[in-house]
Predict the 3D structure of the following.
Amino acid sequence: MKKKILILTQNFYPAIGSAGNRMKNIYQLLNKAEIDTHVLTIDPSYPNQKMYEDKKFWDEPELNIEKRKIKRVPIKNKKFSNKVLSRLFFYIEIMYRFIIHLFKQRKEGYDYILVSTPPIFIVLSAFIGVKLFKCKLILEVRDLWPDSLIGVRTFDNKWIIKLFRWLEKKMYNKADVIVINSDGFRDHITNKLTDKNKVLTYLPNGPRESEIIHTKKENDTFKVVYAGNLGLAQDIDRLKMIAHKLHDNNVKLNIIGYGMKVGEFTDFLTRNELYNVTIHKPSTRKDSLKLIADSDISVAFLNDEEVFSTVLPGKIIDYMTCRTPIIAGVKGTAAKLIEESKTGFAFETDDVQLMVNKVVELKGNRQQLVELMDNCTNTVERDFLWEENVKNLINIIK
């Protein structure tokens, strides 16, 4: 008999960003492995719901027509707010809507609920689902929460943080299986577990086989790319500095950006007349990968807070997928991967000038650039293919 699984997630196709792409891949590959997989999600809303009225985002016809396995619940708060309290109410509304839907579907039989966090409140709805369906819980951890909330320095109410930490420990211990997308999370989670033998499986973000770029031509114009969120965790001030310095060195910078800091970054470019920098509107994953592949070097930043040293940003794997070597202001897990795989160079987050110097050096050294490109392709094929890595989760479920 087929195993049956329900995925609870805020982020799902066609939502842009690594979270939506991740959950889409898990859904597709579990079904391909003959695990009857369903999804409960919301209408795409990040960075704003209006964006998804454009049909270009709905570029996978087989997912567009699937109504039985993919259920989307409407949310009244349709604009993704920057205010922390408003966003918390947004998460609580999702939890409430999910619980209502689970009660309506309580006669369904599931072997597992897989719930993706953050946000942490969706996990609470999964706890109720596990009771209703008498099934097991797979907790999928994409970020350490509330540590990441504290790390972006927008919320410091000690009593609420204390409550969140209690909930965090509760969800780790209630889960039957824990899936992590960064090996840097392992020690943090293990230290909060009562049962140290609980299954913790590493399932990183990565490309599908069809997405990997194996060759690309040398550009007439040397280009640098930054792709992804422009938010509180990404250290926007250092990205401003590198944009200015690259402009001074006559290097073109493309930004594929979205998030709460886009307006601030755009104003900075206008005030400083940085005409070598272009901001592209959020687009589909396919278009974004194409723009990354058309670049010679990629850049990545993370906030200097300690929690972000455990993170492996999805954009870094996307850069490797496109044979685009990485110059990064990161530390910890991400820095270790870049350095050990020889796919680029990692610097202390405040060493912006050294990062620019390395870009200029590589601009004049095509041979070294090609070696880094080859290492990018070899690394994603060896360690980050979805088709291979998802087998760990499939074996657990079966």
User: Anything to note?
Assistant: The mean pLDDT is 90.
